[in-house]
Sequence to fold (255 residues):
Amino acid sequence: MFRSSLRRIIPNISKVNVASRCSIRPLQQSLFVSSAKSFSTSKVWSNSSGLVDADLKSTLARELGYEKDEGEVEASEEMKEYMEKLPFKIIDKAGEDEVKLVRTFGNETIQVTFSIKDLEIPPESTVPEGEEVDESAIPNHPVRTTIDITKDGAGTMTFEAVIDDGYFNIEMASYYKDSKLAIEDSSEAEWKRHALYGGPVFQDLDEGLQVLFERYIEERGITTDLALFIPNYIQYKEQKEYMKWLENVHDFVKA
Fold:
């Protein structure tokens, strides 16, 4: 039911208007050109507030107003229905770019991690007036994910995978005896992981073994439906975070 509908699950979000984000006018070049002959103090440095503050504040307000006019940022009914049936708990903290999906499966804890930094919006194509957009021709953009499967006392299997065209394409399958090291999100843990053998390149494994690993993660909910859901959720979250960013920056400049 969801495989086709999820591709355009949130039409208002899926066409995040990048062009509108590029409408902020560049600062006048003259403000950045200093005289090669003189370093005398000018009004720019003696004023109690910047000369560009008013323009920046009004432009941010205009951009925020434009985004609000586009409509409230919320998930579509199809997305809400899918999330209700999703076996994973969504851990999404406001202001953070990383999202985690967590569930239990028998004696295992499964965690899927992805980031809105992976969002790439294709440039808007020019479509002749009166013609419909062929949504099937819109290119998909890969999303990197990390899938951690942990068993108490037995360590963690970590799969590095890229979501592309509705599939999880595994690039690496690693095993860590120390589950804390496998999952911990710190620069020290990252450095230690890089020092360990992470396993062979997935495509170099025997084809039969590759298929079994793919079926292994699929049985745990890492399915095509999830691969279609995650890019849509990324766009939904990114738009929410962008709106909040506009508000915060506007209020900072205004203060």
Remarks:
- The radius of gyration is 23 Å.
- The chain is about 40% helix and 20% strand.
- Strands lie at 89-92, 98-105, 108-115, 143-151, 155-164, 167-176.
- Residues 224-254 form the longest helix (31 residues).
